[in-house]
Here is the input.
Amino acid sequence: MSARVEIVDGVATVTIGHAGGRAALDLDSTRELAAAVAAAEADPATHVILLRAEGTAFCVGGSIDFFADCGTMLHDRLLEFFEVLNPAIRLLHETSKITIAAVHGAVAGGGIGLMAAADVVIMARSTVVTLAYEPLAASPDAGVSWFLPRDIGYRRALALYLSSERVDARHAMELGLVTSVVEDDELDQHGRAFARRIATGSPVAHATAKRLLRQATATALDRQLEDERRAFADNARRPEFAQGVAAFLGSRGEGRHAGT
Here is the structure.
């Protein structure tokens, strides 16, 4: 698997895999992925990170060939592998930028962690998701054990681990694993268009909304209300807010409007 990043008009598109292949993670490809994500996050002109894949699958997790080739050094090589992968997963999830995963084909193992780290998940209709750890006598990695209970609940997450059930896009949507489902031939166009649209918005407002929503389940209501009050007032001092109000009032025609 390979990884590369392209930055255009506020959108950093991180593409993994290659045409005709199934994206799987080994140490070298994970280093490429981590470097691409870090470059996207560090670019000050980037407001949105779009993670997509070429080939027949979004990501099937760790490469079984890599595991086999490690031989007696597997334990040490895996520790090295996770020292590279885990910071990339954390960066995808914790960046103040909006992150979008456009997924297709098969999503398995650590590929689910990549998908779940994103703020928005757009899935092609024929996609199939499976944890695939239990048949290997393996436990979850790539943040899967952290993301899934939060996204779908502990019992459903454990059931998916124990059964290795193949979850189709419709069921994934019902469970809350994904944001939207589109036709296979519309995934790339839809993902890129959505990313471009979000990139035209206020990155400060987006980052603030992301922070508030993320902290809400662990924050008391009084504290959350106070954080909202200060954030709203602070954002109202920015020129984007004035432009949005003017557009709403009609001085600039139809446009974005405040959320109140």
Notes: The chain has two domains: 3-199, 203-249.
